[in-house]
Amino acid sequence: MKGRLGPGMMIAADLISGQVYENTEVKKRVALSHPYGKWVQENMRSLKAVNFLSGTVAENDAILRRQQAFGYSSEDVQMVIETMASQGKEPTFCMGDDIPLAILSQRPHMLYDYFKQRFAQVTNPAIDPLREGLVMSLEVNIGKRQNILEVGPENASQVILSSPVLNEGELDLLLKDAQLKPQLLPTFFDIHKGVDGSLEKTLYRLCEAADEAVQNGCQLLVLSDRSDELEATRPAIPILLAVGAVHQHLIQNGLRMSASIIVDTAQCFSTHQFACLIGYGASAVCPYLALETCRQWRLSTKTVNLMRNGKMPTVTIEQAQKNSLQGQYNSTTAVKAGLRKILSKMGISLLSSYCGAQIFEIYGLGKEVVDLAFCGSISSVGGLTFDELARETLSFWVKAFSEDTAKRLENFGFIQFRPGGEYHGNNPEMSKLLHKAIRQKNENAFSVYQQHLANRPVNVLRDLVEFKSDRAPIPVGKVEPAVSIVQRFCTGGMSLGAISRETHEAIAIAMNRIGGKSNSGEGGEDPIRWKPLTDVVDGYSPTLPHLKGLQNGDTATSAIKQVASGRFGVTPTFLVNADQLEIKIAQGAKPGEGGQLPGKKVSAYIARLRNSKPGVPLISPPPHHDIYSIEDLAQLIYDLHQVNPKAKVSVKLVAEAGIGTVASGVAKGNADVIQDAHFDGLASVSLYVAVNIMNLSFFG
After folding, report:
1. Domains of the chain (ranges plus CATH)?
2. For a tag on the chain, would you pick the N or C end, based on fewer CB atoms within 10 A?
3. What's the distance, CA 427 to chain centroid?
4. CA 481 from chain center: how many Å?
């Protein structure tokens, strides 16, 4: 035999007979050793697809009451659920996450907000869900998992789900499956005797009930917060907490492989929430209130009129629910597409590998909560106890029973700034004070702006940190002068497609004047910016006619030129006109994802710089398709040094637990600079889940 092993191939050596078997023979022998095909045909079943409901189950007032009780806001409904229902895709935004962490917020949050998704960088690269979707699958198996070392027909006794997202009809089929012996477990806790201790005690009882059911032969546990009537003294347990607690309890008692967990909940409508539930043990989710909200939206007079007048794409009730959760026609959309993206960010191709993997970082839950329900997850700081978590849950629940219950959902202001809503770092008052200080060129006005920033609410963990020193302050006259310090300032990488040509060039000129470095971002740069201006008259230049206040000798070139995964605009002349070359592995606004520029932003000018065509959406892949190891990265660094020997090569990573290990590998790849990006960066376009959930922020 000659050759070498490829992916999925094997060889075997029989030490007794002295025979060596190649790949085909090995697999043939194993396949013929037992009647696997017959076992699968007789025992394995696929869940039949069931049509979505064609009308709302409850009245509008009852739907509103449930939405209030389970923590929905008007932003969640209008900007997330309705967008997915009408367009079949997740909403996108262009700003970073500038609201406080959930544990630091003055407003109550759903439990999911305390969890941040993790992502892969360099050593375990992301998968491209668009170009490599062939190797990805959202199939999940339901039922008891047998010992794989004991071969028998019972190993094939599974129910196959094509997706982890179930509608009401599909859940009913599973609940009626006699072979699975399903057990429905309500997830409510009683507070009529007081809040203290109620949530924790109920969780222990829930775990014991699950344990007993599995020992009695149950192969499917269904955790449900569905109820015909909501009761003021019986709030729902945060469903993620219930799933995590049952999952961990069964693991500790050696019963986890004996049953699957399915969730029937009102507390799930976004891809991050689905990912959390699946990541902490759920095999599938039926988001009944999100489906009911889709139906309510489609049947509303406003939606009907918009569709009739051609101001909104026409979709049926069936299509609206498919768009938001499963898929329209033959294309995967919304939640299914979102889950693929989340898997791909960790380099995972199968949902079954993500189920129970707990690939999250926790910010703001106490040790007792983490140990019970999320054991094994990274939790850098402490936080809420069970009683505090119960009170936060109640802050939503009581709104559904208040005498002056609002006739519409409250806007918490978590996504967009609104007066009286959640605090945003980038707020109108801050912007006005900064503009005033710049336009007036007044130190007093700038001091007011500085005072505003100093008095802002605690936003991130670094706001809680103070310098502690027993040394006297050094006189200002003895420290490095400001003119020297600013030469080490660098701007973040933002393409001109994201912030406009005028802004991009103005930033570059300003940084060049002070001796700092601006960053081109992804997408190339106009060659006219690489030479100093010599034609300025009265602050204007024919070379850059859209700018004012120019001076002869100004240069609009970006000192740092970025090389991203799409390689848009990256040419040898682009590279040689840089002082520093930055390889963007990830960015803080959306780690694990590539750059996105909508077609409407791709003008003729931008298309020319990116060597593309106007109006064509430009999406960079999540990974660099030529970087799958430190050695690959080292090769790219070497190549860039060959093109521009005088330029330093930097590698942009994003902060996460364990980044030190990744950074040490990058350093061994001969990177000159390693940039550690944080959560509050911006992006031209980023998915809602990436902006609000992917951003890790210990000191970011």
Report:
1. 60-88+120-356 (3.20.20.70), 424-458 (no CATH), 480-692 (3.20.20.70)
2. N
3. 23
4. 41
Strand-pairing partners, residue 142, are: 159
**Residue 500 identity (one-letter amino acid):** S
SS3 110: coil
Specify whether the CB–CB gap between 528 and 543 falls below 8 A.
yes
Q: Quote the tokens at residue 652.
A: 């942009």
Distance CA 495, CA 211 (A): 54
How distant, in Å, are the alpha carbons of 59, 79, 494, 590, 598 from that of 94? 36, 14, 11, 10, 11
If we measure between CA atoms, which residue out of 690, 108, 60, 112 comes closest to residue 410?
Answer: 108
Neighbours of 589 (CB within 10 A): 28
| Dihedral in degrees, nearest 10, Cα atoms 137, 143, 146, 152 | -90
At CA 487, angle to CA 552 and CA 669, rounded to 5?
115
Q: Which residues are CB-neighbours of 2 under 8 A, at least 6 positions away?
A: none
Q: CA 329 to CA 333: how far, in whole Å?
A: 10
Sequence-ordered alpha helix ranges (H) in 610-678: 630-643, 659-668
- Residue for token pair 């668009």: 130
Q: Give the CA dihedral 611, 613, 619, 625, nearest 10 degrees.
A: -40
Q: Mean per-residue pLDDT for 250-259? A: 97
Q: Do the beta carbons of residue 553 and residue 646 sit within 8 Å?
A: no
**Residue 428 and residue 101 in contact, taking contact as beta carbons nearer than 8 Å:** no
CA-CA distance, 700 to 264, in Å (whole number)? Answer: 36
Q: How many residues does the chain have?
A: 700
Host H or E run for residue 362: strand 360-365
Spatial contact of 270 and 72, defined as CB atoms under 8 Å apart? no
Cα separation values, 508 from 546, 562, 573, 581, 589, Å: 14, 14, 18, 15, 21
Which class for 94: exposed (0-12), middle (13-18), buried (19 or more C-beta within 10 A)? Answer: middle
Nearest to 267 by CA among 62, 109, 107: 109
Compute CA 24 distance to the chain's CA centroid, rounded to the nearest angstrom: 41
Interatomic CA distance for residues 533 and 544, integer angstroms:
9
The helices-and-strands tally (H runs, E runs) of the chain is 26, 22
For 586, residues 6+ apart whose C-beta sits below 8 A from its C-beta are 119, 121, 592, 652, 653, 654, 677
Would you state the structure tokens that stand for residue 653, as one six-digit string? 């990573």
Q: How far is 253 from 273, CA to CA, in rounded Å?
A: 27
Alpha-carbon gap, residue 630 to 632, rounded angstroms: 5
Tokens 């000192």 belong to residue: 559
105: Cβ contacts below 8 Å, ≥ 6 apart: 99, 422, 423
**452-475, pLDDT tens digit by residue?**
999 999 988 888 888 888 998 899
Q: 121 falls in which pLDDT band (50, 70, 90)?
A: confident
In the block, residue with structure tokens 């034609």: 535
Q: What is the pLDDT of residues 502-518, one digit of tens each?
A: 999 999 999 999 999 99
Average the pLDDT over 647-660 and give the result. 89
Closest CA to 89 of 130, 131, 117, 139: 130
246 and 261 Cβ atoms separated by less than 8 Å: yes
Whether 364 and 347 have beta carbons less than 8 Å apart is answered as: no
Q: Summarize pLDDT for 256-299 with one digit per residue, the tens.
A: 999 999 999 999 999 999 999 999 999 999 999 999 999 999 99
